[in-house]
Design brief:
Elements: H1 16-28, E1 42-46, H2 59-65, H3 77-81, E2 87-91, H4 92-96, H5 107-110
Antiparallel strand pairs: 1-2
This protein binds zinc ion.
């Protein structure tokens, strides 16, 4: 059992940078789901920082942790949050799906799916 504080926020809209990032990763680069390699129902996941936490981020700590991000062009949270640097392409199942989505599982459990043997049963929907 885990408890998570998820700050209230206004309904999200996609920023111009988010749309550009998503288009480039999926339509131009044709990136597959990082977990399973599927190209069905692809979405982009904010990996290092989520929008919901944007007002709680210490950007100096983020700079230290991610020196390869082009910080010289950083003006506001969206510059990092909606950038390709912060994005991971995932299929719907591994993004938001029950028993599989990164939004629904602790990371150490979720990431196991990336290297899962075909014979390994990860969740109840895989029991044969
Ligand atoms: Zn997937």
């Amino acid at each position: 059992m885990i408890d998570i504080f998820y700050p209230d926020h206004a309904p999200r809209t996609e920023s111009a940078l988010f749309k550009k990032t998503k288009h480039h990763l999926i339509k131009v680069l044709d990136s597959a789901c990082w977990v399973c390699g599927s190209k069905d129902k692809r979405e982009v996941h904010h990996f290092h920082a989520e929008w919901a936490d944007s007002e709680g981020i210490d950007w100096d700590k983020m700079r230290e942790l991610h020196p390869n991000f082009p910080w010289s062009s950083f003006n506001e949270a969206s510059d990092f949050i909606d950038s390709e640097y912060n994005m991971m392409v995932l299929c719907e199942k591994h993004h938001r799906g029950k028993d599989h989505g990164i939004h629904l599982l602790p990371y150490p459990i979720w990431v196991m799916q990336r290297n899962q043997l075909p014979t390994f049963v990860f969740s109840p929907d895989e029991v044969k």
